[in-house]
Amino acid sequence: MRGYRLADWGPPEDICNRAGKALFKTAQLNWTLPRQWSKDSPRPFDDKTGAALYVVLREHGNSKFRAIIEYVGLATNVGIRFYNHPKAKALRDTRGQTFVSIAPIDFVRGRDRLESQKAAMEEIEHLLIWTLDPPMNDLKQFSLPGMGINGGNAWHIENRGYRFAGQMPREIVFPWMAIRAGRNRASKR
To answer: What is residue 111's predicted lDDT score, i.e. its pLDDT?
Structure first.
C-alpha cells in the first residue's frame, strides 16, 4: 500500500493486555508436499487423514507458471471430504494436473487457550482465503475475517513446510494497523 506504514507495536507475541494475557492467538501450519490428484482417483488422501486445512493447486498444462493455488478449504476429515466436493472435482476434471496439500494445525498452547478449535480453524481458513485470494473461494470474499456473528480473534499464523513457489506467506498477522500520516505541522519553525 503506497503511502501507508505499519504501526510499530513490536512482535505480536509481546502484545498483551493489562493482565499479561497474549492478545494474538498463535497457530503453526505445516504444509505437506502437494500430492497429485489424478482424474481416475476419487480422493487424494485415505480415510484415516484427520482434520486439516487444505489447498487445491492446478498446473495449467502449457502455462509458464508453476502450480497455482485455486482453492483453500477446511475439513474435519480430509480423506472423506473429497468424496463429495464439487469445486475440487471441477478443478480435477479440467485440463492440466491437480494437486492437494494439507496442513494439520498445531495450536500453540499456554496463555492463549482456544475455546473452540473448530471455530479457530474456520477463522484461519477465512484469513488464508483473504490473504491468497484464490479464484474458486467466492463465498468468504463477501465478509471480513472475524466480522461474523461470533466475532473473531487476533491471529499470528506461521506457515511452514512446503512454500507453494512463494504464493503462501511465511507469516500472517491479523489485525494490524496501517497508518497514512498527514503532514505534521506541530513544529513552529
So the answer is: 47
The neighbour count for residue 135, using CB atoms within 10 Å, is 11
Give the pLDDT confidence of 43-93 residue by residue, as tens digits. Answer: 666 666 677 899 989 887 666 667 889 889 888 877 778 777 777 777 777
C-alpha span between 29 and 102 (Å, rounded): 9
The three three-digit cell numbers of residue 66, written as one number: 508453476
Contact 140, 173 (CB under 8 A): no
Mean pLDDT of the chain: 80
Helix, strand, coil in percent for the chain, rounding step 5? 20, 30, 50
pLDDT tens digit sequence for 143-162: 777 776 667 788 889 999 99
- Residue 175, preceding bond cis, omega within 30 degrees? yes
3-state secondary structure of 105: strand
Q: Nearest Cα to 79, choosing from 57, 104, 58, 59?
A: 104
Domain ranges, ordered by start, for the chain: 5-179
Nearest to 173, CA basis, from 147, 153, 154, 146: 154
Rounded to an integer, what distance in angstroms lies between the CA atom of residue 164 and that of residue 105? Answer: 17
Q: For residue 116, give Cα distances in angstroms to 119, 152, 158.
A: 5, 12, 20
